[in-house]
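Standup notes
- HV: blocked on the assembly model, inputs below
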Amino acid sequence: MKRVYNFSAGPAVLPEEVLREAAEEMLDYQGTGMSVMEMSHRSKTIEGMMNEAAQDLRELLNIPEHYKILFLQGGASQQFAMIPMNLMKNRVADHLNTGQWAKKAISEGKLYGKINVIASSEDQNYSYIPDLKDLKFSEDADYVYICHNNTIFGTKFNKLPDVGDKPLIADMSSNFLSEPIDVTKYGLIFAGAQKNVGPAGVVIVIIREDLITEDVLPGTPTMLKYKVHFDNNSAYNTPPVYGIYICGKVFKWLKKLGGLEAMKKINEEKAAILYDYLDASDMFKGTVVKKDRSLMNVPFVTGSEELDAKFIKEAKAAGFENLKGYRTVGGMRASIYNAMPIQGVKDLVEFMKKFEAENK
Amino acid sequence: MKRVYNFSAGPAVLPEEVLREAAEEMLDYQGTGMSVMEMSHRSKTIEGMMNEAAQDLRELLNIPEHYKILFLQGGASQQFAMIPMNLMKNRVADHLNTGQWAKKAISEGKLYGKINVIASSEDQNYSYIPDLKDLKFSEDADYVYICHNNTIFGTKFNKLPDVGDKPLIADMSSNFLSEPIDVTKYGLIFAGAQKNVGPAGVVIVIIREDLITEDVLPGTPTMLKYKVHFDNNSAYNTPPVYGIYICGKVFKWLKKLGGLEAMKKINEEKAAILYDYLDASDMFKGTVVKKDRSLMNVPFVTGSEELDAKFIKEAKAAGFENLKGYRTVGGMRASIYNAMPIQGVKDLVEFMKKFEAENK
Ligand SMILES: Cc1ncc(COP(=O)(O)O)c(C=O)c1O
Ligand SMILES: Cc1ncc(COP(=O)(O)O)c(C=O)c1O
Ligand SMILES: [Mg+2]
Ligand SMILES: [Mg+2]
Ligand SMILES: [Mg+2]
Ligand SMILES: [Mg+2]
């Protein structure tokens, strides 16, 4: 069996331990004689597994009781519609435009109401987070929306906008569970599982109780109502059971590791190894302003497309997979999610040094 | 490792061979050094896997080129909204009410237009399929909708209504790939994967090309447009890759078995073993009129709630799992999907005979 260092932006590397356990339990989960894939979502075993996953997540993020956890389908992209459909009462929202995923949420929001883009970093190819001091929020905005970590551009909100009593909505698809957060600062947090948490096909929503309401926009499908999923404990219809099961194992793995404080330390250490080298290197450089750098997604370039291509090719041959950057940034991107071992980043930097020495 | 005979209505039994392969490949899929769960949906490997799954499905069902295959999220329940949102042009549809899932599609349809219920078997607790001869279709109906196999009530459309040139829409969640069908009789077929095909979290849609249009109802979320998923080869956003991978393995398993003609024979043999015994038994009897019986879901009762409960309990102790019927029918239900081995049905009938002898 071969394993590589997988720097994919998502779906992405998972803890090897989690995969091993899943493989072992594939035909017989906890002595039931069935696979998790084969069991009714109404069975005690699966209900128990789902509740335990939610409880572990609650502990990890220190989620207060008046915030509810939903395991849904449709990916993060479906949230771009669910959010306005459920939360727009005045049909107005304030958005910050910090990258491609922020932009997709803006265009989807426009299907349902007026979207005010109150700040943007598009002018510099999203290489920074806009100044949050002088934001002009709209009186009648139902919420303020941010993409907390910009997967493609490698920026992160290291501070939050001061939204007063407006609900702050955050797409945390690419930095969910990478460090502790204060959940009470948000009205709603969502994350596609396929980066830091599990396989594609599960999206996790953490929503403040008072935002779960019956009065959604006309024409909202039953499956797109938060209230329906909340009232049915995420099992209104058949949930993506196997994906939730893997997420649950990742939560246990995080708890065993020491929780999110411990995870944050490791992530900072990993990121520092890479950023320090990028700052010191004459060949490679990061594309993001220092203060707004992501802990998870690290885009970098050599300045020469040819050299970038050569690097990506040779890195792949050496067992460093999926380092090609997104086309709108170019160059390389190393996604160093929770499950990327520190050794993977050390080895990558060693490889980069060698490459630099050989190609200067 | 223990394995039981699992008669769950869904999520349901999968071929043991498929689960074994998935377990073996969990950490290293085809020498990539990554799990299928860890790989980008934009990678050659995953694109190839998804295309192969679609191609195998096309072969199995003999799907003509002008029908398109989509792998989506949201379960069958999300189709209850997607169908009207995408296919209603006049905002009128004709529905046949043959059970709980048929009814759910009706109520969801009413969010979007006028639903004419042109036939119903509600009067006899859905124990039969209504007469299809004198159906009065609505001139302006955009489509005619049926639930092809009624999971809860154990009925199946063994003939189809003659809908002329209206598109016939069929929910085949619980009998998909159980036997050959003539795809050209339908405008759209959909099936939640979690019964006959794979894990929960994937829904398969087969749709006639001309029904994939841009002019959907106002307010339709991007993720709920068939055209968006078709234009992006089911990868507009991150698809439920692992679920599709398991479906793909089930398709290969079916092909190896000899395809759907062979599968049908086996399913008929299995069903006959059970139905013949139900007809002969003095204690147990099926709840569905003979001509409308499902090959997949077999509800039966003893006539005594106490005896039903005793049977379910003893059957469970003997390794026959999930035989409890749905509350609206009561008694028992044996779901004998493709992956249920013939031996499982034989053993169940032996057990029923023994129980009958001991309890008369
Ligand atoms: C920040 C962010 N939001 C949303 C998405 C879209 O996720 P999905 O593919 O699950 O719809 C992504 C995917 O990469 C992402 O990185
Ligand atoms: C015939 C039929 N349609 C629809 C559904 C709903 O499927 P899902 O849970 O995937 O939404 C089911 C589930 O049992 C079903 O049997
Ligand atoms: Mg981005
Ligand atoms: Mg540098
Ligand atoms: Mg039914
Ligand atoms: Mg009888």
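- HV (later): unblocked. The mean pLDDT of chain B is 98. Chain B touches chain A through 71 residues (CB under 8 Å).
- Next: hand off to the docking folks.
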